[in-house]
């Protein structure tokens, strides 16, 4: 783990300290429109429930990959590295890509998950997002 990556990861974790969570999707929807609706043409599968979400999304991702479809994956929480949360075709986001996304998030002071996932997905050509 590089020093720059460690610093950016700390900034990511510190972004909401002392700031109350703003409920609702108003800011996220506004940002999504500013980004040009990057996922409007990509099917999205949202897996919910109490247990097994990570396993289900990983299995779906592998199924799509078996059929030569590019798959973006967002899972939370992570096990050992924050980079596990964002993957394309089972490859974790690189430290460099992570730093670009987090920097963009810090500048925009928006919903971290929303900005992070959509900026990363925006620069990939995906067939599915899970």
Task: Explain how this protein is built.
By secondary structure, the chain is α+β, with helices and mostly antiparallel strands. The chain has a single domain, classed as UDP-N-acetylmuramoyl-L-alanine:D-glutamate ligase. Helix 1 runs parallel beside helix 4 and helix 4 crosses helix 5. The two termini are 27 Å apart. The mean pLDDT is 78.
Outline of this structure?
It contains five helices and four strands.
Query: Please, how many helices?
Result: 5
Helix content: 40-55%
What is the CATH C-level name? Alpha Beta
Model regions low in confidence, pLDDT < 50 over at least 5 residues: none
The residue-averaged pLDDT reads 78
CA(first)-CA(last) distance = 27 Å
Oligomeric state of this protein = single chain
SSE layout:
Layout: H1 3-14, H2 26-34, H3 53-66, E1 71-74, E2 86-88, E3 91-92, H4 95-108, H5 112-122, E4 128-129
List descriptors.
single chain; 130 residues; alpha+beta; UDP-N-acetylmuramoyl-L-alanine:D-glutamate ligase; 46% helix
């Amino acid at each position: 783990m590089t020093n720059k990556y460690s610093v950016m990861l700390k900034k990511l974790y510190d972004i909401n300290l002392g700031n109350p969570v703003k409920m609702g999707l108003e800011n996220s929807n506004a940002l999504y429109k500013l980004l040009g609706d990057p996922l409007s043409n990509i099917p999205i599968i949202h897996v919910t429930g109490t247990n097994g979400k990570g396993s289900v999304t990983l299995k779906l991702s592998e199924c799509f990959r078996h059929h030569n479809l590019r798959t973006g994956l967002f899972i939370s929480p992570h096990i050992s590295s924050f980079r596990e949360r964002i993957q394309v075709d089972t490859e974790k986001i690189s430290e460099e890509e992570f730093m670009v996304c987090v920097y963009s998030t810090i500048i925009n002071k928006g919903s971290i998950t929303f900005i992070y996932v959509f900026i990363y997905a925006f620069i990939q050509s995906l067939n599915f997002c899970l």
